[in-house]
Amino acid sequence: MGRPRYLRVADALRVPILDGALPPGARLPSRAQLARRHEVSEQVSRNALRLLIAEGLVESRPGSGYYVREVPESYRFARTDRFSGSLLRPLAGEDRDTITRPACDRMAERLGIGEGEPLYRTRCVGTAGGAPVAVHTSWEPAVLTHNTTRAPGDADAETGVLERLAAAGVVIDRVVEEVAVLPLTEPEAVLLRLAPGAPVLVVERTHYSGQRPVETSDLVAVVERCRLSYRLSLARTPAGGGPRPDPHR
Amino acid sequence: MGRPRYLRVADALRVPILDGALPPGARLPSRAQLARRHEVSEQVSRNALRLLIAEGLVESRPGSGYYVREVPESYRFARTDRFSGSLLRPLAGEDRDTITRPACDRMAERLGIGEGEPLYRTRCVGTAGGAPVAVHTSWEPAVLTHNTTRAPGDADAETGVLERLAAAGVVIDRVVEEVAVLPLTEPEAVLLRLAPGAPVLVVERTHYSGQRPVETSDLVAVVERCRLSYRLSLARTPAGGGPRPDPHR
DNA sequence: AAGTGGTCTAGACCACTAT
DNA sequence: TAGTGGTCTAGACCACTTA
């Protein structure tokens, strides 16, 4: 009774899609067919299909029909704790580009330095299947590797931050990552070929050496095609020592 | 010309919302008023408003009107590695609810058990400022704590999985979290009071005891209101042992 | 040429809110 | 009681794909 008809029609399609009876690529009945079959108006079948589209299960091809959506291959960012060399797997198909800029107030705060201090900013675009899927932008105080052969631009693309800075005598022992979904802003929108305002997955990451932040970065990733995969160890230190857990309240 | 009318009506509302001329909480013209003002049918103003709702700019209050959405304070989920008692800070304002169900194929796979084996499913809704912000659903093989006082329903809400299962003799030493942004589906949509299809932040988490998965859960969180905060240690275990400094400070 | 999805019009009923 | 949003019906035209 109370349940709106378009939800019932949507249910009738969602079930076979989710259990595989309607596999990806399969064509759904047309609006008119659905309307006849469920004895509803065409608007009702429209609403049902629109809902399934919004849920990401169905796509429409104008002039052709509604189809079960192919699940897009997703790009997985692997993150782990202490046993990992670099939390961020190097992006494939990258064009790395390093420049020197004075710290803006936001970066000065994230890196705990003075505004205007020189930073290396490194940016690269990750692609998968020809399409850009993520933009990674990293900022690092120039003072750390200035006049060494370990500046961001010197290292080859496969070298992680941890190795590079370790070689420069900076030991990274801690990382903080903030994950959020934010509206896409203009500069990244161009690189990702998306409309500004589209939701994107953002990871703000900061590497620390003791109390001191030594590198910070933003990963801006296309929502539909990216996943983060955290693999974390929870084993207590074998020796009976070990301080009590800090639950970060 | 070609631009559909409902997009033009939506534009006419989006501009004043984004530049603050229509502040959060402001009431928009009703469907009928919009239709008259723009000389379109009421369905067109309906479509325009539905688009703005999907964009997260507007909310509807049935019987009352359409309003510019209040931008909510965000809720932070703290995650850490081995020093944390529970990765997921207990949700505030929770209504915990535990039932016993046979494992569906998806859960059987995640938990590495046979389809149909009994599971405890625990669900709670996290709220902030009165509004639901996340749904956490956890699945755990009943065999682990069956006939003990450590089943999910027995523990008080503040006890984390790690402590509870440890008390039942199951030592969790590893966790894998998959973070993605997915379209919201119907069952969670009701709990979160959101439209199905809205993007939500999803964390699929699995706790392991050695190679064996012992608990898995889905956290479905409202995108605009939730952040994940990972604090991870990268320090190698020092050979000498001794009490380790807390790396999360 | 027929079918399809995208859009649009012009009505309607219901449950709910505001007054 | 009047207004509102949510849903629904029964039509229609257009651009596009398919055969």
TrEMBL record, chains A, B:
GO molecular function, one term: DNA binding
PROSITE patterns reported in the protein's UniProt record: HTH_GNTR
Keywords: DNA-binding, Transcription, Transcription regulation
Occurrences of domain HTH gntR-type (ranges): 3-71
GO biological process: negative regulation of DNA-templated transcription
Pfam families: GntR, UTRA
InterPro entries membership: Bact_HTH_transcr_reg, Chorismate_lyase_/UTRA_dom_sf, Tscrpt_reg_HTH_GntR, UTRA, WH-like_DNA-bd_sf, WH_DNA-bd_sf
SUPFAM superfamilies cross-referenced by the UniProt entry: Chorismate lyase-like, Winged helix' DNA-binding domain
Matching PANTHER family: GNTR-FAMILY TRANSCRIPTIONAL REGULATOR (PTHR44846:SF17), MANNOSYL-D-GLYCERATE TRANSPORT/METABOLISM SYSTEM REPRESSOR MNGR-RELATED (PTHR44846)
Protein name: GntR family transcriptional regulator
Organism lineage: Bacteria, Bacillati, Actinomycetota, Actinomycetes, Streptosporangiales
